[in-house]
Amino acid sequence: MLADRTSRRALGRAASYGVAASVPVLALGWLVRAESGVVAEADRVTVAAATRFTAARPALRRALLVGQEALAARWVNLAATGVCAWAWRRRGLGVRAAWAAGTVWGAWALGLAAKGLVGRARPVVEDVVTTVPGTSFPSGHAMNAAAVGVSLTVLVRPLLRRRGRAAVATAAVVLALVTAADRVLLGVHHPSDVVGGLLLGGVVAGASAVGHHGWASAAPSGSAPRIEV
Q1: Which of 77, 148, 193, 210 is deepest in the core (most CB within 10 A)?
Q2: Cα–Cα distances in Å, from 215 out to 5, 39, 81, 95, 158?
Q3: Phi, psi angles (nearest 5°) of residue 71
Q4: What transmembrane ranges does the database entry give (predicted)?
Q5: What integer is the mean pLDDT of 171-187?
Q6: How many helices and strands in the chain, by DSSP H and E?
């Protein structure tokens, strides 16, 4: 009974965190859907400058196109699932690994739903670098990178010392920023798309981590390892 109450409190904290942290994302999504003049103009100017910069540098364009494919959700999520499998089989973090994998794929599905809900068109630019299908807000690449970065950082935290934890967290941030830059420089996303994606991915993974932390702390000894966040 006590464990049930503790688990409910943990889920409540996760929900509260998710709602509070989602406010900036929801506000940005509303501005995008309402075609706010300030956001739309900033997006237009930035994407135009970014695509001109890329179009003038063929080597950068080729690198960005390679990055677009390498950083696609299908490959990043499969790699993340491989890390989860390693943590389960080699390090005995079965429940923690299942949580991380579930969060990664759940965030991916939520991102697809958010795209359909907002229904924003891709940028229209003069210096076309490449084109991709689908809608634009939030950026699936950026959201996925943020969710994977948070999930794997939390997953491997107990296995690392302080410097190792800092290195993994730094790598996660760099991955997210590189992914976001790739999308804007290729002209397939507005800056607000990638900002929204990064925020939403972080919110989803963060709320999931808060909920799992409370659940694991409430679980009977031996049924689930505690999660440190």
Answers
A1: 193
A2: 10, 40, 22, 11, 17
A3: -95, 10
A4: 97-118, 167-188, 194-216
A5: 95
A6: 8, 0
Q: Could you say which DSSP state residue 133 is in?
A: -
pLDDT confidence bin for 4, thresholds 50/70/90: low
Q: How many angstroms separate the CA atoms of 49 and 185, rounded?
A: 9
Of residues 202, 185, 184, the one with CA closest to residue 193? 184
Which residue type occupies 219?
Answer: A
Residue 37, C-beta contacts closer than 8 angstroms, at least 6 positions apart? none
**pTM here?**
0.84
Q: What are the extents of the domains in the chain?
A: 2-218
Tokens 């929801």: give the residue.
26
- Report yes or no: 130 and 68 within 8 Å, Cβ to Cβ: yes
Please give the Cα distance from 191 to 43 (Å, whole number).
Answer: 6
pLDDT computed for residue 214 by the predictor:
64
Which tokens belong to 156? Answer: 């491997």
Neighbouring residues of 21: CB distance < 8 A, sequence distance ≥ 6:
202, 203, 206, 207
- Torsion over CA: 189, 28, 200, 133 (sign): negative
Token code pair at residue 79: 């790699």
